[in-house]
Amino acid sequence: MSKKFLLAVDLGTSGCKITVFDFEGKILGSWTGGYKTYYPHTGYAEQNPQEWWQVISQGIKKVLRNNSINPREIAAIGVDGTSWACIPVDKNGMPLRPAMLWLDRRAQKQADWMKERSGEERLIRVSGNPVDPAYITPKILWIKENEPNIYKKTYKFLQSNSYIVYKFTDKYSQEYSQGYGFHFFNISTGSWEEDIADELRIPLDFMAPLYHSHEVVGTVTAKAAQETGLVSGIPVVAGGLDAACCTLGAGVIHPGQTQEQGGQAGGMSIQVDSPLIHPKLILGFHVIPGQWLLQGGTVGGSGTLKWFNEQLGTYEQLKGEERGLSPYEIMSEEAQSIGPGSDGLIFLPYMAGERSPIWDSKARGVFFGLSYDKTRAHMIRSIMEGVGFSLLHNLETAEEVGARVEVLNSVGGAANSHVWTQIKADITGKIIQVPFSDHATSLGAAILAGVGAGVYSSFEQAVSKTVRIQRVHHPDDKNNKIYRDYYRLYLDLYERLKDSFVQLSGI
Questions:
Q1: Fewer beta carbons within 10 Å, N or C terminal of the chain?
Q2: Model confidence over 440-481: pLDDT tens digits?
Q3: Lowest mean pLDDT among 20-24, 234-238, 270-274, 409-413
Q4: How does pLDDT run across 131-142, given as a tens digit for each residue?
């Protein structure tokens, strides 16, 4: 029986998407399931990896059954996952505690110790990344200090995609695009720095073997086949970071091309062919060998509008039900009715602290300029604009080390909004192309599987066959000039408020 399909597992923060593609990038079936995030204390954010696997197993069975897909026709499996998930496992691959997520910021004390021990500038020079509690290294040290019994039992530290790959194959792996979570991973050479690991007192034995993202780690075991409804022997590639897979799925395969992310969290990924290190940005390997991604990651993505919908969006929900539209489509219409700058209402989208380029876990969301003449539509548009300002802040920071961007390929839920995408184009002054937005991350994971299994001869061939641009947004010069004034005020507001954020956190 000939192989026809590629299976992608997209392990996100709020849920997991299981998608089956044909070799042309067409979706044969897709299913999304959720799992809980636990917040046991302030600054903590955890998920149960075993719940991930239960959802994935259930989802694969449903996709195969609901779409009459023969698992024997699946050529390969690709997995992508969220960044900086720290999962200690024992020798049997059993998680010893819940996964500490990228949102988890409990390890500030350990991050501060790392700076004192090895020097922040040196750690940035080697790893290409700032020393922040969101990264994996401080989390390992937190476990060592606070959960010594778990630390002693740990055989390997895995991440989101490598844990799922292990569940499929019984093989341990660490692929390059997730290496940036470790401050003893040399971002220029793609190798472990033993001297730094020794300084930080973290044995390199904890690290799994390194793989390129498209390399086959193993095949589906009989046990995994029974649990998922697949058949044993299907190749499973190492997969990669969700943002990097999304970048590939957006068609970014050459230096200078850029992906703009409009998911729960926002940000951008600029492909570069040399390791451009900026202490305020994120640098990691692309899922394409020999290439890097200079990234800006912000908590202010489509999650900001999701918050508005959940807390204040009853009107939009009711209007949507009346008209057969989603509340987000109603919000886009409302935002369209307001001019650039929201008549002087500015939103700081720091709803869970902020990552790049300010790296301030105490920052909080702010509406500035509220007055009696402001409406719900003003608030919605200002939220969209605030996210656009955070994107521009990251792009301008990247320019400081020579990263130049002309065109953005926009993906994620926010890319479905023509209004929001145009706002981002006007704010940044960049052309924005929208490819296959809702499934770009899954498509990237599928492309990795296809390249690894020999379905495609190269990444260029894979992208040419599967990625299609749906629409293009050109910036409006008049609106861009208006936004420049508001953007300067946006930057100034944070500078004026950052000390107040610290005071607020201490009350």
A1: C
A2: 999 999 999 999 999 999 999 999 999 999 999 999 999 999
A3: 409-413
A4: 999 999 999 999
Contact 448, 214 (CB under 8 A): yes
- Select from 439, 429, 425 the least CA-distant residue to 472: 425
Query: Of 64-78, 195-209, 294-308, where does mean pLDDT reach its minimum?
Result: 294-308
Check: CB of residue 359 under 8 Å from CB of residue 279: no
Under the phi-then-psi rule, with left for phi > 0, alpha for psi from -120 to 50, and beta for the rest, what region is 30? beta
Per-residue confidence (pLDDT) for residue 264, from 0 to 100? 79
Question: Model confidence over 73-106: pLDDT tens digits?
Answer: 999 999 999 999 999 999 999 999 999 999 899 9
* 257/70 Cα distance (integer angstroms): 37
Instruction: Count the residues in the chain.
Output: 507
**341 dihedral zone (left: phi>0; alpha: psi -120 to 50; beta):** left
CA distance 258 to 278: 17
Of 397, 312, 387, whose CA–CA distance to 347 is shortest? 387
Tokens describing residue 34: 């959720």
Q: What's residue 85's pLDDT?
A: 98
* Three-state DSSP class for residue 232: coil
Q: Distance (Å, rounded) from C-alpha 241 to C-alpha 338?
A: 37
Residue (of 164, 176, 240) closest to 207 by Cα position: 176
- d(Cα 146, Cα 207) in Å, to the nearest integer? 21
Calculate mean pLDDT across residues 380-389.
98
Please, which residues bridge with residue 192 across strands? 185
Of residues 357, 355, 472, the one with CA closest to residue 408: 472
Strands 258-262 and 407-411: parallel
Tell me the C-alpha distance between 355 and 363, whole Å.
10
Helix then strand count (H, E) for the chain reads 17, 24
d(CA 481, CA 463): 35
Instruction: Write the CB contacts of 78 (distance below 8 Å, at least 6 apart in sequence).
Output: 6, 7, 8, 9, 236, 237, 239, 245, 444, 445, 446, 447, 448, 449, 450, 452
Return d(Cα 438, Cα 262) in angstroms, integer.
Answer: 10
Pick from 307, 308, 305, 327: which is nearest to 316 by CA? 327
Q: How many Cα neighbours within 13 Å face the side chain of 264? A: 12
